[in-house]
Write a structure and sequence with these properties.
Oligomer: single chain
Radius of gyration: 18 Å
Number of helices: 11
Largest sheet: 8 strands, mixed
Helix content: 40-55%
Order of helices and strands: EHEHHHHHEEHEEHHEHEH
Number of strands: 8
Mean pLDDT: 90
Structural class: alpha/beta
Shape: globular
């Protein structure tokens, strides 16, 4: 039986995936293929070069702990003014994220990994999904993570690429097309449960985007659950951590580990209707 891990995007909530990965490796579940979009591309890329075992997952946890929005997206007043006046393509540069990738990726080409890796980005002009399985690794993951407006697009073979989450934040279809037998889906969820509605423009826009992304995930799981065995790990709920708060990584990892462990301990996570437990909260 062949197995794929599909890792979704969602900025700081990518820390959830570390906890989910802990639960999976504890139970001896490892992938033959890793597929990631946005922050999921970084997590998948980190592991693709090292292998998926307890040691590599703890290394990834150590990468997440010191992260901050200021390190990843360092503000520059001149660049912000340039972006607002149409002279820059984004509010911040990609040097913070590029530095992170240069430090922690253990391969230079997406094709040269211990576990096959597919990174998903979006063509800025057409909106089409662009799957990357070969080419410069740092540029590929930068492209998959390039949130439009915040980070600049990445030039890739004559195309401008941006965040893979726009075309497909949880690219289950890529795993189905690869012909794998079982797909473990590691979603990051959305701000749910007994929390106050967003009150600022930025928070409202981000929350609205995560709602649309999660609805797409539910639809895709229902569409593909007959094409392969889907194990959709439940993202913790409620989620109260802000969209750019990278200082709660340990909390997020622990919450996700507990939720995933409980879920996997029942029939290995297999469910007759794998989308039911990720339905939108009625709260």
């Amino acid at each position: 039986m062949t197995t794929a891990f599909v890792l979704s995007g969602e900025a700081n909530l990518g820390a959830f995936q570390v906890g989910m990965l802990r639960a999976l490796v504890e139970r001896g579940v490892t992938p033959d293929l890793l597929i990631g979009a946005s922050v999921g591309a970084f997590n998948a890329g980190f592991l693709a070069g090292r292998g998926v075992d307890a040691s590599a997952v703890e290394e990834l946890a150590d990468v997440w702990r010191p992260l901050s929005a200021w390190k990843l997206f360092p503000p520059n007043p001149f660049r912000i003014v340039g972006a607002l006046t149409g002279h820059q393509p984004a509010l911040v540069g990609d040097h913070g994220l590029r530095s992170l990738l240069d430090r922690h990726l253990s391969f230079t080409d997406v094709a040269d990994t211990r576990i096959p890796l597919r990174v998903v980005a979006t063509d800025l002009l057409s909106g089409n999904e662009v799957g990357i399985s070969a080419g410069p690794a740092t540029e590929a993951i930068l492209a998959s993570s390039a949130i439009p407006g915040l980070l600049p697009p990445v030039d890739w073979n004559g195309r401008k690429l941006v965040d893979g989450g726009i075309a497909d934040n949880t690219p289950i279809s890529d795993a189905v097309d690869a012909g794998v037998d079982r797909i473990y889906v590691l979603p990051c969820g959305y701000q749910c449960g007994d929390v106050e509605p967003p009150s600022t423009v930025a928070a409202t826009l981000l929350h609205t985007m995560t709602l649309l992304i999660h609805k797409r995930l539910i639809r895709d799981v229902r569409e593909y659950d007959a094409a392969a065995e889907l194990v959709v790990l439940p993202p913790p709920c409620p989620v109260t951590v802000g969209a750019l708060d990278f200082g709660q990584a340990d909390l997020l990892m622990t919450q996700a580990y507990d939720a995933a462990s409980m879920f996997l301990d029942t029939d290995g996570g297999l469910r007759t209707h794998p989308a039911d437990h990720i339905e939108m909260s009625a709260g």
